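In this supplementary section we document a worked example of the pipeline. Step one takes a protein sequence of length 77 as its only input; no multiple sequence alignment statistics are reported here. Step two produces a three-dimensional model, which step three serialises into C-alpha cells for compact storage. The input and output of this example are shown verbatim.
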Amino acid sequence: MPRYFVHIKDEVEIIRDEEGLELRGLDAVREEATESVREMMSEKVRAGYSPDGRAFVVTDEQGHVVLNFPFRDAIRD
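The serialised model returned by step three reads:
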C-alpha cells in the first residue's frame, strides 16, 4: 500500500509529516484529509476562526505533491 505524507502549511511555515500514512490511493487521501481538518478545526470554526491560508500538502514516498488540500475545502463539504 502506498505511503503518503500529510504536511500542514500556513502563511508562515510547513509542519512536516515524517511518519506518513499508508492509504489505498488519492480518494483515501482526500477522505483522510477531510476528516482530519474537520476534527482539528471543529471548535475553532464554531468560535468564528477562519481556516483560510492553512492547507494539507500531501506528498508521495518520492516527495511529489499529489494533493494540495486547503482546510476551507473540508469545511464546505
